[in-house]
Specification:
By secondary structure, this protein is an all-alpha fold. The protein is built from six helices and no strands.
Amino acid sequence: MAFLGSQGNAEPDLTGGDPEPSGPSVEPSRSVLPPGVQPFTGQSTKRTRILLAGAATLTLGAACLYTFMVDPNVPTNAYPQCPLKAFTGIDCPGCGGLRATHALLHGDIAGAADHNVLALVLLPVMAYMFARWVLAQFDVTVPRVNWPRAFVWITPAVLIVFTVARNIPVPGLQWLNSGLN
């Protein structure tokens, strides 16, 4: 004698068997889709991947073109100010990164290092990772950089040390700050 019937009610089943189903039978693991609609399998189509890669490349290209054309060193230009710098006067690890990007786009490596030396190191790495992702959408294989597991701890440590060092008013470390007062 079962105390829970097939419909989930708490009445005892006195008939000795399961009652007849009252509605259309639908398997719990499959949903009913309209005709012509394929179930989502977690795989994107090649067309979707190419469109996404193209849109991301166009967006990044437009941002780089704008950064190339409009100088972030001019305070009246339409660039956001770092909130941490605005409220506290402290340079965050990213302060000067936009100006460093502008300098790099103009081929001024020394100027980029003057604004944010960390951006000078990270921008080429990020460019490689973005290019590798875009090419992967077109089924082009580019060698992967195998970062050591220690980078999980090294990266935040470097960011913290860089942030502290660029904000200490010591004559030898002044070149690390973003250059804005």
